[in-house]
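WP5 quarterly update. Target: 4-aminobutyrate aminotransferase. Source organism: Acinetobacter qingfengensis. Length: 447 aa.
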Amino acid sequence: MATRSTIMDTNSFRAEHADALDAETRKLTDKRSKILGESYRLFYRNPVHLVKGQGQYLWDATGHKYLDVYNNVASIGHCHPAVIEAVNQQMQLLNTHTRYLHENILDYTEQLLKTVPNEVNRAMYMCTGSEANDLAIRVAREYTGGTGIIVSQESYHGTSDLTSGCSPALGSEQPLAATTRLVPAPDAYRIDTPDLGDWFANEIQKQIDDMQAHGIKFAGFLADSIFSSDGVMPNPVGFLKKAVDVVHANGGVFIADEVQPGFARTGDAFWGFARHGIVPDMITTGKPMGNGIPVSGLLARGEVLSAFSDKIPYFNTFGGNPVSMAAAQAVLNVIKEEELQAHSQRVGGLLLNELRKLMDKHESVGDVRGAGLFIGFELVTDRDSKAPNKQLALDLIEELRNNHRVLTSVAGPYGNVLKLRPPLAFQEQDIDWLVGALDQALNKLKA
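Structure tokens (predicted):
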């Protein structure tokens, strides 16, 4: 049997679960397998058939209400009326591509660039985070003349040929590119070092040296600044700066993959990288940007982008179209008007404190860490050894889904970290539902 990937298969429905399904769910899973092929994955041993969403809540086909603690696609909340209205209005006027003039893309870009450091002053648009990271790798290679890309050990950056070759989280059956090098994740919980920044910078340098030894010129370091697929590693604040300094000292560029930590998610800053006091050479965005409408972007220093854009044309039929830009503009407006960055910081801080109280009640909770509404909840067999407890994590998310109607999933190389990442519509009153569900589920699984 092929080795299963960590990101796609850890929390997934598989054929051996089929006999336990009700007739209607079995009918749908069988139909999916027959006509969509075998690459697609469903969450949970008993897949959820969702039909409606509003804010931080979802409803299934039988009318059951769920608390969504995983979905950053609908970043400001499912079916946000501002996005619905913006998309509806623009759809009634025009939807075409960027080879015609249109104000939406220009107005949005001017506002978006105000949220990033002044050195980052150009933008291009695509439909997916995969496309954004793919283009960023191409730009990095044109600018540096190198091909080597460094990523963290469990990172995920996309599904295109270039990005899947830089996405070890897709598993051992997806080969990495020969020019890709991996660094261990900056895991402050497990790595015993006086300075995580120095340690991580040294790991970057080791891989640059290895590239050189193999005749590969270094092009850049691509990282999600909260290392979400690695198990959510936000702290200590600022540790990433030394690694980026090493990247620049070796002639490379830093690409900040902000698909997950961007757009006010971490609370401390609008962008995840900003918590570390660094200026990326490129910033990539994706899912949260349009709240469910396919749109993504690449923001870059002008001189870096020029190495590519001054000689190579780029066209993406739907990238930057007026409807997607209307959705993106609505999301940006809502983040500002509803003060969602401050909300994420405040409510995320309250949630983090309540989750940490569970450590006093459950020895299996080894660590709780996070920034804003992005939290890693790590489960271990015992705290002294910190041995990961993958089975408990998988049983826990099933218990949360089945008996408490809380939806989340796992992350990290051991599959033992619950990635708690609700829409930014998550409210203070939802904390009791989530923390109470975790407490009761852990008590039951301990019995």
